[in-house]
Amino acid sequence: MKVLHAAAEVFPLIKTGGLADVVGALPEALIAVGADVRLVLPGLPDILKGVEGQQIVCELGAIFGAGRVTLRLGRLAHNGIAVYVIDAPYLYQRPGNPYLMPGGSEWPDNLQRFGLLGWVAAHLAAGEFDPDWTPDVLHAHDWHAAMACAYVACHPATRAATVFTVHNLAYQGLFDEGDFHLLGLPSRLMVPVGLEFHGQLSFMKAGLKYARRITTVSPTYAQEIATDAFGCGLDGVIRARGTDVSGILNGVDGDIWNPATDLLTAAPYSADRLDGKALCKAALQQELGLNVDAGAPLFAVVSRLTSQKGLDLLLDALPALLDFPAAGGPQLAVLGNGDPALETAFAQAAAVHPGRVAVRLVYDEALAHRMMAGADAILVPSRFEPCGLTQLYALRYGTVPVVRQVGGLADTVVGATQATMLNDQATGFSFGPATPAALAQALHQSVSAYGQPALWRQMMLRGMAQNFSWEAAAAQYMSLYQDTRAASASQARV
Ligand code: ADP
Ligand code: GLC
After folding, report:
1. This prediction's pTM
2. Residue 493's pLDDT is what?
3. Domain interval for residue 409
């Protein structure tokens, strides 16, 4: 089974969120179960720099507004996975965020930048650029790579089956419909039953309409996106795909997220030897300027600061958390950046509560590890969450998750109730309504539990014993690929 993954991010070369972690880990897990996997990525500066031993596969000439485009094949340094890099300096030679200009608005030529990604992926799938390696399955991730599915659907000779994974339906890749012609696709696709979305061109719809199978990153989110409340206007399109849509839960890359081997933290620890975690906590409190107090429950956030993540709820619930009587007083550490209003509000909270609230408004991979290891609990109060990875990392680090019961959070954290506690099932705390009051109640519940060391320790150990592995996900993707190939062989093209 040859599988080509098309994506815009890959850890550790370029990352804005969980998508990069998935594209960084899933290929290796698929290789471990027998697949032959390659990636195709845009030649952003960090990707050009990070892919080793690049050889020219072919010159693609002047396309999508670029003066010259070259397709190269190299390998990721850390795991040797083969990567096709689309070297198009005019479109990709821009430092920083892959999607946004330094001021925070989208690059005005994103249609060409990501149209090219999909176009190259589709031509690789057709066997046109590299006759030595033609994939059986083209797996496109998020709107950035979605257009590949439309190109494949328009090319009857392509044997590869397409799979499209929605990592986040809220980011859709919408463009001016007048620019549709830049994609070189037949105009019959630019209709409401095709790529048109309320007078705009939607890249997301290319995946949702034309991929043979659609997955998203948790079973609950797969159901949610078929509803008006979570469908971002596309729930009708998703419902129409029926059983072609499924959810496969993300995993944890245990080479990167493992408290026993993590070189980025103050001390190693494991379920058998938890003492290192106390050292990690003291070191984190010290580093962040929090009161160094082993008895103070330390809550952490590691997150993009966007409305998705529900952190405005946390700001509103903060007085209730800080006033809750607990030995030493609860503490909050926030690592995140994004929405300027949220950044300002968190910075103000830190200024008002020195020693109790600490905020780092940056993207810092190493600090994320120290937060996972040093905190007692992680907060993920998301409005919606396709999967969520930080609660999975936290479970592994014995850092108890406090989550909203939604999407992948609902699939991965067993909230403490009388029943789940009695049955030794609870791995965290959860709340339903997206309100500060509901979050405050879950926070109070967790602070009370923290005050009962034996009970807290049990929850930590239960969390650490959970196994959200990429092996399990890879097995599910492999069986999906097999089904999709079989179905593709018998289906007509558009
Ligand atoms: P999303 O993809 O929606 O941002 P996930 O929970 O799936 O959410 O993945 C977020 C990833 O980004 C995790 O690996 C998390 O550790 C990381 N992350 C988020 N914000 C930061 C930050 N400010 N510094 C370092 N890592 C961060
Ligand atoms: C998205 C989602 C997040 C998910 C990640 C990886 O960014 O917001 O929930 O974990 O993709 O699939």
Report:
1. 0.97
2. 54
3. 275-467
